[in-house]
Amino acid sequence: MCGIVGYTGHESAASVLLAGLRRLEYRGYDSTGIASLHDGRLHLRKLAGRVRRLEEALAESPIPGACGIGHTRWATHGPPSDINAHPHLGGEGEVAVVHNGVIENHDALRAELSADGFTFQSQTDTEVIAHLIARELRLLRDPQIPRADLLLNAVLRALPRLEGTYGLAILHRDSPGLIVAARQGSPLVVGVGEHEHLLASDATAIAPHTRQVVFLEDGEVVRLTPDSLQIAHVNRGPVTPRIDRIDWAPDAAELGPHDHYMQKEIREQPETLRNACRGRLRRDQATAVLGGLNLTPRQVRHIRRIVFAACGTSWHAALVGEYLIERLARLPVEVEYASEFRYRNPPLDDRTLVFVLSQSGETADTLGALHEAKRRGFPTRAIVNTVGSSIARAADGGIYLHAGPEIGVASTKAFSAQVAVLALLALYFGRIRGLPFVDGLAALEALEFAPEAMAQALQTEPLVRDAASRFQSTRSALFLGRDLLYPVALEGALKLKEISYIHAEGYPTAEMKHGPIALIDPETPTVFVAPRGPLHAKTLSNIAEVKARGGPILAVGTQGDAELQRLADVFLPVPDVPELIQPLVAVAPLQLLAYHVARLRGCDIDKPRNLAKSVTVE
Q1: How confident is the model at residue 140 (pLDDT cuts 50, 70, 90)?
Q2: Percentage of the residues of the chain whose pLDDT score is greater than 70
Q3: Of the residues 264, 495, 607, 613, which is catalytic?
Q4: What is the spatial distance between Cα 1 and Cα 169, in angstroms, rounded to a whole number?
């Protein structure tokens, strides 16, 4: 959730760090700070609030140096405050540390260090790390250790004492131009530049400087100077860096002419769908090609059950995948909350394939579910957006979304890309397991049409903008959908409550009679996700029940559906498309609705309260 940036090179560290922190704002945070190293002194600026406050403080009182670290904090230990903001100093101010993650044994370490005479200023677990490293530096009296390696050795001695997760960046006032960083369960990426190196918790922070990156693995410690990059594993010794290339242009993370990142990402969805399907459709065989799965047709035929584990929006996409795979491939699918799966003991057999889904590839609960599945010996696959992420590297195979960076906290284009990839997966499994050629071709053609269908669905925006005023002052809303569109109702409700702070719940349409109908009144709108399908007549009956009780109705339905338009107070038409891609066209107006309601309510759309883009703690 927090963000880390580091820089050592020839430019002003403060300028580079500020730019990187601004690019990490989407991750969610409540305080921010930087430390730079210059002429044997650590220069520190940190405070509660947004990056712009830090920028103003630095404009009034600049700090020198071409080596530094920065941080955006999302509070875990201690409330948001200037004192609890990172970086934290250790010893008598000789060490500066920024930290993502949670140190579970911080109370015991705090007591131990306090007994040794170290004084704590903050309530954070991170300050424990700073003092621990400072103590190790004081204990290092080995003349065989070069002065330039003192900090690295102190960090290597301190790390085994830490229980929990961490991404760390550390400065030492007697180590000019040097940053030492370490990773355990919290992502870190190194940027390789010309006579400069960068460090970040997310590649978006360093993309303007370089597209050459090294993704650190758990247990690795890196030593950075402007002209050197050295990596070692705490247990296995030196590691040869593998340099990867970021596969998206730096300006893909820029806002451009849009008012918000969420707006930009909603509008990018036609291109997102093209990228998700590009090169993966084989018309001559009426199937999909998914080489990264690392599954042979024989292995696919051996599978008897699939388990999806995910959180939030990814969980909703997985529910769509459940419907699609069961329909096309006739394989039973279970969708689990990753946070529950990792602590349960579900009776899975050796013919079960476990999939995890995550936009960031760093979601702690999802990564934990993946590790638990691997521990039990199950084959694992991942559907992720972020190349080089922890989940992507840990899984036995998988599929990248190719959606590009998603900055808005409320996921939109990643959901669409996940649904498209799951449809590809359903087609691929289906064709291996007996789906007829003609049915496979129909599915393939639907996916080929999906980008154009999404573009048409997005043309409802003027109607959505007008409809948003009906939700501006409401306190609660219901979202209802059937079959493949039930997960879309869940996703629409999640989007509304995430960014407009209006209570919203999603249900299968028929379940309305079993409780939620008690909520129907003139002040509680009901959103029906109701494109034409086999159960459409039943949905119209449910809409009539709400209308008879005076409930306002907003309906997303097939263009030209006169009966639905007659029943609804607001009708949002989407193109008439095959059922396979109905979730894609139906979700677009709901995303736009959440966006425009939040805008009318004056909410912080891209950085909603209490939320973070990448949830890297339990």
Answers
A1: confident
A2: 96
A3: 613
A4: 16
DSSP string, 377-429: T--EEEEESSTT-HHHHHSSSEEE-------SSS-SHHHHHHHHHHHHHHHHH
pTM: 0.79
Pairing of strands 166-172, 31-38: unpaired
- Tell me, yes or no, if 277 is annotated catalytic: no
Q: Summarize pLDDT for 450-475 with one digit per residue, the tens.
A: 999 999 999 999 999 999 998 888 99
Answer yes or no: are the C-beta atoms of 331 and 303 closer than 8 Å. Answer: yes
Distance CA 139, CA 585 (A): 63
- Please provide residue 31's backbone torsions phi and psi, each rounded to the nearest 5 degrees: -155, 165
Domains of the chain: 3-252 (3.60.20.10), 261-600 (3.40.50.10490)
Q: Is residue 29 scored above 80 in pLDDT?
A: no
The tens digit of pLDDT for each residue in 69-116 reads: 999 987 777 888 989 999 999 999 999 999 998 899 999 999 999 999
Residue 467 identity? A
Phi, psi of 270 (to 5 degrees): -60, -45
Residue 463 CB: number of other CB atoms within 10 A?
16
Q: Residue holding tokens 């960083």?
A: 181
CA distance 595 to 492: 11
Element (H, E) at 573: strand 570-574
**Kind of pairing, strands 305-310 and 352-358?**
parallel
Strands 220-225 and 179-184: antiparallel
3 state SS for 347-367: CCCCCEEEEEEECCCCCHHHH
Contact yes or no for 292/280 (Cβ under 8 A): no
Helices (H), 458-580: 461-468, 486-500, 536-548, 562-567
CB atoms within 10 A of CB 36: 26
- Beta-bridge partner residues of 67: 8
Percent of the chain with pLDDT over 90: 68
Task: Judge whether 311 counts as a catalytic residue.
Answer: no
Point out the catalytic residue in the list 2, 277, 311, 603: 2
**What is the maximum span of the chain, computed from C-alpha positions, in angstroms?**
86
